Amino acid sequence: MGKGKFIVISGPSGVGKGTICKKLFKEINAWYSVSFTTRAPREGEIDGVNYFFVTKEEFLKRIDEGEFLEYNYYNDNYYGTSKKIVLEKMEQGINVFSEIDVNGARNIKKIFPDALLIYIAPPSMDELRKRLIGRGTDPIERINERLSIAEEEMKQVGFYDYVVVNDELEKATKEVKEIILKEI
Length: 184
Ligand code: 5GP
Hints:
alpha/beta; binds guanosine-5'-monophosphate; 5-stranded parallel β-sheet; 184 residues; single chain; 21% strand; 4-stranded mixed β-sheet
């Protein structure tokens, strides 16, 4: 039995990567790694499904105890991938996929050089702004912060294996699925 592959899906907030991942979830042979975060749950998000929501103190304790494969401080909050369970799954030959930011993706590539990195890009920054405003979950300052992070991130996507533009959800999902099926 071979080792499982780590599949990273990245992209700015509001690009639709969560929706794409949800659709893919049932169709690809991979286990979804639920990350830990210190940010507050958005409406409809469920602890243990979207994230494990923890306090900052708890997150820092987990860092000290070496529980994360990788973690990052992003827009005032910590986000991290649990080490133990991911390594166990991969040892069992199970592919793992997760939504991780650009810094995290770079770290994952260092740990697993054959990881598959896919970046979901918006058709334009204007469109991304519209989607974030339409989502209505963040105040305008937060949206502006997220947009400037997105701009910075998008300058760095050269190390990704694939960049998929989400101009149409069904099309982008199909494209990501085809890439994954080809690569795993
Ligand atoms: P959001 O707050 O919109 O759910 O996520 C913010 C950013 O954190 C997104 O780019 C998301 O992909 C990223 N993220 C989520 N989980 C992890 C993780 O475990 N590690 C890292 N490095 N980034 C993560």
